[in-house]
Write a structure and sequence with these properties.
Immunoglobulin-like, elongated, single chain, 6-stranded antiparallel beta sheet, 8-stranded parallel β-barrel, 26% strand, alpha+beta, 22% helix
């Protein structure tokens, strides 16, 4: 019998150029002019193909209609029925499979509509690889967006990485392709082979892959995300009710592969589960409220620290499986510690298996390098004006909150997103439609990101690493802001480090660098960061930045940390800063944990622990971080002696903590300061105490406010100010 399929369609199937294989392969009705069904299968490694009726067991042989291995059988006057394929190889070996093309398509028209509109915020439930059972058969459903492709196939060990097998069905104008492949299971490797115009043929990792091979390998891995049993219900319920702006937030920033290693096992990284066993109790003992992980999304280059992401939906396989990462987050929550992720929606690398030139066109990025490339970083910029790209990123934020119970995202390089001329010379950028330098599409994306994530997940926190004067970054979108909860205070960080780096004898000439931050401290909801960026690339470790001899370096760092914890704003410290790492950070080596065997380092570690204890205990230090009601200067004018004094106030007017900092190595006996209220003041912290490695110039006993006007206040007290030290005094609220 002459084949029903036209020669052109046969060639398209066998040469891997057919974009709608469901119309040709599998079992299809022959039409009203010839009632019945026709079955076709492409099996280039079989000499014989049969279909087996699943109900009756009847075997029907298909005829070879193309010498490359395309088979066909017409069944007149038959309705569709369930069947399996049985192949006989050229060596007479037989095997049976379910035919992928007999299963219905799974993505609905409504899904396609939402994706095209840019409002499908859980595309990860449809896109990528999903283990499922259809018609009683277990397998994996695949879906990918490649609107400019001529053909997309799933390739893997199961089809000898041959793109002629398992071509996906094109879903019309949506640009989506999908297929269900029976018998596949978690752990199977796969990629998408994409044939595009202009002779483009690429093998791409799945943009929505839930797991990936360890570099330098680059295949995606099928994974079932629904197997892990969470035990953090109490934490999640409490988080939904938490207003973080008036709660203590102190973040321990961690690069997982260099926090600690296992030297006796070839200096390998800790796994996610080992981090849960070692990092979590360490952070809890120090009193941090959150752990922030540098990007853990899959990335090919260790030296990027994770900031050049390929697999946005895949926690890196360097440290274990997705289930292992869930275990880490779960353990954090059970110990009362939140988990934050660095998130990089600003740019992505050019690696051939990634998002770049994905379907033979500039799909995720802009085609014009003046808008689509970061030349400084060698990366590409997302096209935020394309709905499907925006949905990819918005869904990714939702994914981390939904699937992994992540508590917040720190958005990297926000300034590079906001400005079209970021790090570009004249003529290297394209103005927006109004002639300005603002990237309006990125602004809209950031606002939408904050609206969606906060609307869906109350208690979720967003941080902006934004280094310019863009207004209202941490204000609600309904007031014209970008909608972030907090903004990194890069100005405070820079000025403070410039100041503390000076020799004490010169600091009086730079006093303004210490006090200037309070001019703008309440214009945004700030977090004060001493991050990884400040201890790398020749900047030196925090301890190494300090001037003076060995003792003075530790004393300088102690007074700096005390000043930081008393200053308005939430807190962030990079790993190693808490015990005085001498070497600047390198991503390929562990922190120098042996330093904790030495008194100065161990006592600095103890100070950071005690600062956290006071910070969490006293509402004055965290309840009103973003308004003048929570802060008042006592004296900011004592530049000659490099001394500042101020107090913090909580929601209870009598909840007051006074902070006095002496940034010279000269102790001051009988130093008098004005105080806001009469009563009894008790020294609750002195960074010069012997227990912290200081010279023990402390204030023993209580200090009662005297009726001596001073510094514009009606009451005052006299103090011993330690050299290069800070003193916290608390008003007894019950006097």
């Amino acid at each position: 019998m002459k084949p029903l399929l036209a020669r052109e369609a046969m060639d398209a199937i066998v040469h891997g150029t057919h974009g709608s294989p469901y119309e040709v392969l599998g079992m299809n009705e022959t039409g009203p002019s010839m009632p019945g069904v026709v079955v076709r299968s492409f099996q280039p490694y079989a000499r014989k193909v049969e279909i087996i009726n699943s109900d009756s067991g009847e075997a029907l042989e298909l005829a070879r209609i193309h010498d490359q291995g395309l088979f066909e059988r017409v069944l007149p006057d038959r309705a569709k029925f369930r069947y399996r394929l049985r192949m006989t190889g050229f060596d007479d070996h037989q095997w049976e499979l379910e035919d992928p093309y007999r299963f219905p398509l799974q993505i609905t028209d409504f899904d396609l509509y939402l994706l095209g509109e840019g409002t499908h915020y859980r595309t990860y439930t449809k896109m990528g690889a999903h283990v499922m059972t259809i018609d009683g058969v277990q397998g994996v459903h695949f879906a990918v967006w490649a609107p400019n492709a001529m053909r997309v196939s799933v390739i893997g060990w199961f089809n000898r990485w041959d793109g002629r097998h398992h071509p996906m069905q094109h879903r019309g104008g949506s640009g989506l392709w999908e297929i269900f492949i029976p018998h596949l299971q978690p752990g199977d490797l796969y990629k998408f082979e994409i044939k595009g115009r202009h002779n483009f043929l690429g093998q791409k990792a799945d943009p929505y892959a839930f797991f990936s091979e360890l570099r330098p390998k680059s295949a995606s891995v099928v994974w079932d995300l629904n197997r892990y049993q969470w035990r953090d219900q109490d934490w999640m319920a409490q988080r939904r009710e938490t207003r973080w702006h008036d709660k203590p937030i102190s973040v321990y920033e961690v690069h997982p592969s260099s926090w600690r290693r296992v030297p006796e096992d070839f200096n390998r990284w800790l796994t996610y589960r080992e981090l849960a066993d070692q990092l979590v109790p360490y952070v809890k003992e120090l009193g941090y409220t959150h752990i922030e992980l540098l990007p853990i999304s899959e990335h090919p280059f260790d030296g990027s620290w994770g900031y050049q992401t390929i697999g946005y939906y895949a926690p890196t396989s360097r440290f274990g499986t997705p289930d292992d990462f869930m275990y880490f987050v779960d353990r954090c929550h059970q110990e009362g510690i939140g988990v934050l992720l660095d998130w990089v929606p600003a740019h992505f690398p050019k690696d051939g298996h990634g998002l770049a030139y994905f379907d033979g066109s500039h799909l995720y990025e802009h085609a014009d390098p003046r808008k689509g490339e970061h030349k400084d970083w060698g990366t590409l910029i997302f096209n935020y004006g394309r709905n499907e790209v925006k949905t990819f990123l918005l869904s990714n934020a939702m994914y981390w909150a939904d699937v992994y119970h992540i508590d917040g995202l720190r958005v990297d390089a926000v300034a590079s997103m906001l400005y079209l001329d970021y790090s570009r010379k004249e003529g290297e950028w394209i103005p927006n439609q109004f002639g300005g330098r603002e990237n309006l599409e990125a602004v809209d994306f950031l606002k939408r990101f904050n609206e969606v994530i906060h609307g869906e997940y109350p208690g979720f926190i967003t941080f902006a690493e934004e280094s310019t004067a863009w207004p209202m970054v941490s204000k609600p979108t309904y007031l014209g802001g970008l909608g972030f909860d907090f903004k990194w205070n890069m100005g405070w960080m820079h000025d403070t480090l410039v100041y503390i780096h000076k020799e004490p004898v010169h600091r009086k000439f730079h006093h303004h660098e210490l006090t200037f931050s309070l001019i703008y401290a309440f214009t945004e909801n700030f977090i004060l960061p001493f991050s990884h960026d400040e201890v790398v690339h020749g900047k030196g470790a925090m301890l190494d930045k300090m001037p003076g001899d060995y003792w003075q370096r530790f004393a300088n760092l102690r007074v700096l940390y005390a000043y930081m914890f008393a200053h308005p704003g939430k807190k962030l410290l990079f790993m190693g800063c808490e015990f005085g790492q001498w070497r600047e950070w390198t991503c390929h080596e562990s922190l120098d944990w042996h330093l904790l065997d030495y008194d100065p380092h161990r006592k600095l570690h103890d100070l950071v622990r005690d600062l956290h204890g006071l910070y969490r205990l006293y509402g004055a230090l965290h309840e009103i971080d973003f308004s003048w009601e929570g802060f008042e200067w006592i004296d900011l004018h004592d530049w000659e002696q490099s001394i500042i004094s101020f107090f913090r106030r909580g929601r209870d007017p009598r909840d007051i903590v006074v902070c006095v900092c002496n940034f010279t190595p000269v102790p001051r006996e009988g130093y008098r300061i004005g105080v806001p209220e009469p009563g009894r003041y008790t020294e609750v912290l002195n960074t010069d105490a012997d227990q912290y490695g200081g010279s023990n110039v402390v204030n023993t006993g209580d200090r009662y406010a005297e009726d001596i006007p001073w510094m514009g206040r009606n009451w005052s007290i006299g103090l011993r100010l330690p050299p290069l030290g800070a003193v916290y005094l608390r008003l007894n609220p019950h006097d």
